[in-house]
Amino acid sequence: MHGSSSHGAGGAARRGPPGAGCLAALLAAAPGWAAQAEGPADAQARPWLDASRSFEERAAALVAAMTLEEKAAQMQNAAPAIERLGVPAYDWWNEALHGVARAGQATVFPQAIGLAATFDVPLMGQVARAIGDEARAKHHAFAREGRRGRYQGLTFWSPNINIFRDPRWGRGQETYGEDPFLTARMGVAFVRGLQGEDEPAPANAQGQRYRKLDATAKHFAVHSGPEADRHHFDARPDRRDLYETYLPAFEALVKEGNVAAVMGAYNRVHGESASASRFLLQDVLRRDWGFSGYVVSDCWAIVDVWKHHRIVATREQAAALAVRNGTELECGSEYGTLPEAVRQGLIDEAEIDAALTRLFTARMRLGMFDPPEALSWAQLLPSVNQAPEHDALALAAARKSIVLLKNDGLLPLSRDIRRIAVIGPTADDPMALLGNYYGTPADPVTILRGIREALPQAEVLYARGADLVEGREDPGAAPLIEPQYLRPAPGARERGLRGEYFRNRDLAGEPALVRVDPQIGFRWDRGSPTDNLLARGDAEAHQAIPADGFSIRWSGQLLPPVSGQYRIEVAADDGFRLYLDGRLVLDRWQDSDRMQAASVRLPLEGGRAYDLRLEMYDHERDAAVRLGWELPGARPPFEAALEAARQAEVVVFVGGLTGDVEGEEMRVDYPGFSGGDRTDIRLPAPQQRLLEALHATGKPVVLVLTAGSALGIDWAQQHLPAILMAWYPGQRGGNAVADVLFGDYNPAGRLPVTFYSAEEKLPAFDDYRMEGRTYRYFDGRPLYPFGHGLSYTRFGYSGLALGQARVGVDEPLRVAVTVRNEGTRAGEEVVQLYLAPTRPGQLRARRELRGFQRVHLAPGEARELVFELRPVRDLRRYDEAAGGWTVAPGEYEVQVGASSADIRVRGRFTVVR
């Protein structure tokens, strides 16, 4: 599956030399290395440092040396140091959904749903290996600085393999789509790549392989919204849906991916908390699947067990229930009550010992208690982060993820265009590249920038035109105030504002950093403040202020160039205040989990200096702030967009969604959006109005969508000549979109979700039955079917051949098909194989994806593709009466084609017992 030549991040060219100087510098990166270096006597006193023992023996010895209180503390994600035992502090919480997240600069690949749209399993493995290299390098760099906090470890809570059953779910963008088979294939590749399963790995004296990183399959299980209800609802799918839809990807990651960890969900499943479920964690995960790793709760899900689900009455009972039922690690603090739970007789200390031994076995396997020379991964240098080959891989992944939904011949656009209009709220918004759970890209390329770089000789007109959604003043609608209009003090020659950075959220005491900032346009990610999707690197602020709980005051003078009415805008993630000439003109001094914006219109005199003071604070999580304005005479955005369109030969409208309106349990609602989910799958109303007005100009309009979920774009499908789905395409998304628009890349992405008509009446969001959902059970006509995606060339299918007409339940069946590029342009085709019943009762689904291959073909080239099926695996259905899997004998149909609704060739075979 993974060729060694595709391993982008682990080559010798970027590993440090094996000399003594390099290793000495790296020794400080290894927890426990000093004690390890003391020699054999210390290994006898501390057997957990004895590398000649097995990981399990070392872990058990360490747990046996702890007090009950120490054990309980180590079973929480923010595990404190135990100095007397040489155990350093460690926080298990880290994220790597589509790149190392929340830990400073890192390569940002397309969001998970975009990676799924590539239908490219080997590519997914390459991406995961690159992420793994960056993660290892970051961890050791942090450790050398003595930093062992959140987002700095080796245990990653990715991937999200929940089934994207409903397009309204805000977190669906984190998944690999609606199909269990596709999710399993992409998820297994991600896990194996992240954990280094297919790389050469060092081993201990017992021959046990060390592990590069721990991946975590989440959220187990039956979890896909609504976000607002996730802490208290009870998902009750029937057994067939549970086993045939919600569990298969988890089973594949356990059995084929060797995934290190599984994360529980917030909700109940048939009355049990998913993070404390005996059925899920004991009966299914361990007994049926043989899982040998560890289980972590979702964050603060154990609180829900007693507080919201009311399964038990106390914190102690909730903690004891979760541990006894199989959750070894808590993200949260309820496990701090475990000593009292032991005293109350709710749980035995031996059960705690067994759970904690699993956790320390995992840490031993990651090499946390060995000197770094034992691990080749510890020699990865910080320069691996944002390495050129990773940037190139991000571009390749973005190109492969783009889905051409419609093309009436307008695309690819000619490079002879002299004037093109790029319009829309996500055209120049870096957030439209990122989705959620992201790191900080060093040089993100927006779609506007990508088009400008692709057409250096053309005039590229840009207008935002409309806000993202109704009722939301978009942060970023006003251009940043440029340095020449700001000065830090009266008479100062330097340009910008004086910034005072405080290590608290109250602007109190002496500032930790004072400097002049030319512009106020910052976005710091969660792991460490690192500047800015817009300006320069900010190592200075990174060192001076904490990741959370800081504040900044900027002061100086504003120098308007002309007299007239100005609109001054401030946007920030958390609170801000703006003063002009000592008067408070904007005040949003409150916590916010997303960017909040406010603006004021003021008459200002050109040539006069106004005293300006901007204050902001960050509470937690991501932090951002920007100060912008619109000068007098600026045309309203809508009118400016129409004027640009009238002047252009062609219009590229870039719109859709961003992670600011769809995502995880948000506290902001807009028309069509609620708590991060959507209540309406249409394109937001401000964008729809603008799109229709642009079309009315008579100029050809290409629609480029950024989003993490399906959109009901019926009007666009009926009226526009070309539509691209770009997802959240990562740091090189703008270049990738431009490459497709102008024909430098022939698109071949496929939809991992069904696009429904805007008028389709969807099943109730909180109903977890699969009836009427996804291509497998939907009987209506989709706007765009699962697996859909067009090309700039044509492909023909022929010669379907089955290895035999009759096959035993456990026998392999060979399926061959010939695919030919019948056009004049090279391109890729995603060949999809489905199995379908020929009579009722054989399968519940209308058809099931059971194979896919992405193949590149030159013009006129043909290739035979071979798939291997096995009825016991590919035709099994869950028999509720028997309580197990069965395969119904009889005739079935093989369907091969370009999408779930574009079947080109068919064949039948019979399953016999």
UniProtKB/TrEMBL annotation:
PROSITE patterns: PA14. GO terms for molecular function: alpha-L-arabinofuranosidase activity; beta-glucosidase activity; xylan 1,4-beta-xylosidase activity. Residues 492-645 form the PA14 domain. GO terms for biological process: arabinan catabolic process; xylan catabolic process. It holds the Pfam family PA14. Keywords: Hydrolase, Signal. PANTHER family: BETA-D-XYLOSIDASE 5-RELATED, SUGAR HYDROLASE-RELATED. Belongs to the glycosyl hydrolase 3 family. This is Beta-D-glucoside glucohydrolase.
